[in-house]
């Protein structure tokens, strides 16, 4: 089932999410719905707060990015083949490498894309949908998507990394999003 995406301005996007246990009600259905919602919205990642669930759960499919690189971009992320993965109760263990810019966007903040600087690598501890524990290091565009979705479960948004002047310049557009004065080709819910 395709779920509505929560728009900028909704309180749930600013909450630090809670851990869940294997007996979380309807977990597999929720994960399936998140995948379906993410793909229907043309996203590469989706965090539970974006569907109004303040829990530490996100899904990413960075294979989509890697598989659709232009010919001149093929060598941009050496060794990064992309992943399709569920992350539950994730915690960042370490970051390393130079910070690099990439124009990020967000399904909860439609029609705004801005350069955000993030480190090259992230080491993250998490459990998968079977609650099997993992600790892995990711780099390149996959690390970027993980950082972005991880921020959602920490109550942060990519616009929080922008300089104050840039945020002021975006204020009216952000206000329009929070008031529902935008059109997107996927279901959204707006702050009341």
TrEMBL record:
Documented EC number(s): 3.5.1.88
Residues given in the record as Fe cation binding sites: 106, 148, 152
InterPro entries, sorted: Peptide_deformylase (IPR023635), Peptide_deformylase_sf (IPR036821)
Cofactor: Fe(2+)
Entry's transmembrane regions: none
Free-text cofactor note: Binds 1 Fe(2+) ion.
Active site feature: 149
GO biological process, one term: translation
Catalytic activity field: N-terminal N-formyl-L-methionyl-[peptide] + H2O = N-terminal L-methionyl-[peptide] + formate
GO molecular function, one term: metal ion binding
Keywords: Hydrolase, Iron, Metal-binding, Protein biosynthesis
Family stated for the protein in its record: Belongs to the polypeptide deformylase family.
PANTHER family registered for this protein in UniProt: PEPTIDE DEFORMYLASE (PTHR10458)
Function description: Removes the formyl group from the N-terminal Met of newly synthesized proteins. Requires at least a dipeptide for an efficient rate of reaction. N-terminal L-methionine is a prerequisite for activity but the enzyme has broad specificity at other positions.
The protein, known as: Peptide deformylase
Organism: Chitinophaga niabensis
Taxon lineage: Bacteria, Pseudomonadati, Bacteroidota, Chitinophagia, Chitinophagales
Gene behind the chain: def
